[in-house]
Each structure stands twice: as C-alpha cells, then as structure tokens.
C-alpha cells in the first residue's frame, strides 16, 4: 500500500511541477514570467494539455479562455483572495493582456505574441491529473477503482460488484439532486454556487467572461459533464458555464461520447434541470 501511495504522490508532484501557478519554478510559472516574444520550449506533457485547452477555447469561440489569469486575480478569485469589485480602467488593463489567440504553438515551442499573456490551466489540469492516476492504476493491473481529485472523477470496473454511483449536489442545499452511474466513465462539475461574492445586491461568480472582463451573468449555476476522459469532462464543464444553456447543449450534443446535466436557477429561485440528448 505504501508503495502505491508513493507512486500516486510522485505522479501528482510531477503534474504540479508542470501546471501549478503556486510553484514559482513550475513550467507554467516559467512561461507566465517569460516577458519576451521568443520561443519557449514546451515539455511533451505541457504541450499535450495546452493543445487540448486551445481546442476548447476555439470550440467555445473564445468564451472559454485559458489566458484570464489577470482577470481572475483582479476579481479576487486567484492568488489574491480579497474579492473586490474592480474599476473599469483596471479591467481594461487586464483585458489587454488576455486572449488565447495570442498563443502560437509550433512543434514543441510556444510563442506568446503578447509577451504579457499568462496561462491559467486550472480548468483542465485537474482532469488531466485524474486521467494520469487512472492510467497509473490501470498499468499496475488494477481493474476496479475510482479516482477523485477535488470533485473530478474517473472510474474503472465495479464497486465491489456494484455500480459506481455518484451524486450531483443540489445548488440550493447539500442534498443530492441526481444520481449518476459512473462505470468506466469520467465526470466533472463546474459551478458558481460555491465561489462568488455579493456587491450592491448583485452576485458575481468566479467564471469570468474574457470578452467583457466581468463574470458571466447566466442563470446556469452548475454543469456536470460525463466523458471518456476526465480532462475532456473538466474542460467541457467549465465551457458550459461560459455560455447560455442552449448554446452549451448544442456543443455537447455534437459529440455522442459526451453527456451533460446542467442546472439553472430562474429569477423566481426555481431550479430548472437540462440534460443533453
């Protein structure tokens, strides 16, 4: 057991060394602190995740964007935990350093066309970490297991000859609103109901619009996505929070390997549930 724990820890430490913005010399921190338009050599791991992330940026037509680091910090949802309502001029400054279209990948190199752009891969890296632990356990010969990191899940086989049953939380309380059979699938949830602040009777969530610089104001409060990989589920769950329900479902319904369960709360406080086809 100790050997297995050590192997899992090694994988997680390695992933943090690539993707954690809280580690000064991680690969992502090195890229973010690079203030020139020269080419940056990427590790294979980082290139793989970054390419996937850019795919979802394009799929969403830019509503999902991995370069919103300055905006997230400005609103107090990043390293600066002081949630404040920023002024327009500071939002404009942050927007000038935002936009995934400032990134160019050529082979194993990244060029930041705007050297000030910073990456934030938190919406996809956790799912990637779940997939890596899943592959480790699979390669070690395990056939029945569930991997969970911060609410992102991937399962294989059965739970003591039973199904893997996972609950989706009701955003109005801590009850379970829906139960999902997760055998051999991945699941990720993104929501606004547990990370927001109030300013002048308005609620502002941590899901920031990279076009306006302000948090999105949709009625959607939670999006749960089932997919064959957790990285895919993780990115799509966040993507669903960046657009209205119908647009999100039309993207999900394009991919027969993906399912989504979206919860919104209307102006009367009523919960409305949406499911993909």
In short:
The chain is an alpha+beta fold and 277 residues long.
Descriptive tags:
single chain; 277 residues; alpha+beta; six-stranded antiparallel sheet; three-stranded antiparallel sheet; 8 helices; 34% helix
Fold blueprint:
Blueprint: H1 2-19, H2 27-32, E1 39-41, H3 44-59, H4 69-74, H5 88-95, E2 103-106, E3 109-112, H6 122-139, E4 145-149, E5 152-156, E6 165-169, E7 176-181, E8 186-191, E9 196-199, E10 202-205, E11 220-227, H7 230-241, H8 245-253, E12 259-265, E13 271-275
Antiparallel strand pairs: 1-3, 2-3, 4-5, 5-8, 6-7, 8-11, 9-10, 11-12, 12-13
Helix pairs in contact: 1-6, 3-7, 6-7, 7-8
Order of helices and strands: HHEHHHEEHEEEEEEEEHHEE
Total helical elements = 8
Question: From the alpha-carbon coordinates, what is the Rg to the nearest angstrom?
Answer: 19 Å
Morphology call: globular
Q: Got a strand count? A: 13
Give the helix/strand class: alpha+beta
Q: How would you describe this structure to a colleague?
A:
A six-stranded antiparallel β-sheet has the order 4-5-8-11-12-13. The protein has a three-stranded antiparallel β-sheet with strand order 1-3-2, with no helix packed on it. A two-stranded antiparallel ribbon has the order 6-7. It is an alpha+beta fold and 277 residues long. The longest helix has 18 residues. The relative contact order is 0.13. Helix 1 runs antiparallel to helix 6 and helix 7 packs antiparallel against helix 8. The protein has eight helices and 13 strands. The termini are far apart.
């Amino acid at each position: 057991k100790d050997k297995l724990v050590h192997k899992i820890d090694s994988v997680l430490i390695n992933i943090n060394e690539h993707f954690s913005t809280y580690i000064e010399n991680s690969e992502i921190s090195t890229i973010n602190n690079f203030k020139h338009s020269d080419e940056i050599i990427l590790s294979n791991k980082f290139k793989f995740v970054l390419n996937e992330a850019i795919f979802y940026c394009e799929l969403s037509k830019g509503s999902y964007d991995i370069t919103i680091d300055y905006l997230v910090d400005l609103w107090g949802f990043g390293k600066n935990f002081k949630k404040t309502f920023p002024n327009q001029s500071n939002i404009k400054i942050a927007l000038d350093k935002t936009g995934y279209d400032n990134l160019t990948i050529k082979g194993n190199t990244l060029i930041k066309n705007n050297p000030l752009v910073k990456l934030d891969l938190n919406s996809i890296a956790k799912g990637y970490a779940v997939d890596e632990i899943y592959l480790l356990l699979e390669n070690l010969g395990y056939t029945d297991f569930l991997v969970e990191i911060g609410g992102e899940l991937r399962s294989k086989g059965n739970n003591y000859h039973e199904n893997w049953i996972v609950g989706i939380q009701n955003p109005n309380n801590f009850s379970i609103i829906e139960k999902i059979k997760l055998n051999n699938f991945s699941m990720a949830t993104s929501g606004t109901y547990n990370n927001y602040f109030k300013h002048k009777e308005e609620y502002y969530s941590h899901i920031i619009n990279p076009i306006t610089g302000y948090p999105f104001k949709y009625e959607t409060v939670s999006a749960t996505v089932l997919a064959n990989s957790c990285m895919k589920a993780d990115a799509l769950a966040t993507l669903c929070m960046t657009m209205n329900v119908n647009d999100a479902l039309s993207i999900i319904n394009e991919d027969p390997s993906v399912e989504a369960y979206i919860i919104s709360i209307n102006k009367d406080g009523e919960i409305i549930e949406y499911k993909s086809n």
